[in-house]
Structures are given as C-alpha cells and as structure tokens.
Design brief:
By secondary structure, the protein is mainly alpha-helical. The radius of gyration is 19 Å and the shape is rod-shaped.
C-alpha cells in the first residue's frame, strides 16, 4: 500500500521547527551584534541586547518542541498502521 502523505505536505511540528530556526537565527545575529563592540573597541550595547541574545536558546527549545511533536505524531501513525 502506498503512503498517503505527500512529500511536500507539512507534518505536525514542521511549523515549530521553522519558527525555532528563525528565532535562533535572530538570536545569533543579536549575539554577534552584542559581541562586536568588544572586538571593535567601541562602547558596549545596552543591556537589552544581551537579553535578545537569549533568543538563541528560545529558538533551540521551540525547534526541539517541534521535533518532539513530529516524533510523537510519527509514533502514533506507526502504531495505528500496525493494528
């Protein structure tokens, strides 16, 4: 029997993974901007920029939640196919 899932269809958790990647990228850019004055010898950025650097961790957690959701849906689908 053929698999009914289309190759270009979005599965459960794919949106969370994409959002996590975007948030992680924004956090990485904020981290680079925050660290740049240390190498350039200029004045450091305000404290909120260090908070924006935490977006890397948030993005990682969001993407991880998407992966876990995708794995759970795959397990449910595999369990339903065996019955």
């Amino acid at each position: 029997m053929r698999d009914k899932t289309q190759t270009n269809s979005a599965g459960p958790g794919d949106g969370l993974i994409r959002a996590g990647v975007v948030i992680f990228f924004l956090g990485a850019v904020a981290t680079l901007v925050t660290v740049a004055p240390l190498f350039l010898g200029s004045h450091p950025f305000p404290t909120y920029m260090f908070g924006l650097s935490m977006l890397m961790a948030v993005g990682f957690l969001v993407a991880g939640a998407g992966v876990l959701r995708s794995v759970a849906a795959g397990r449910r689908q595999a369990g339903g196919a065996g019955r």
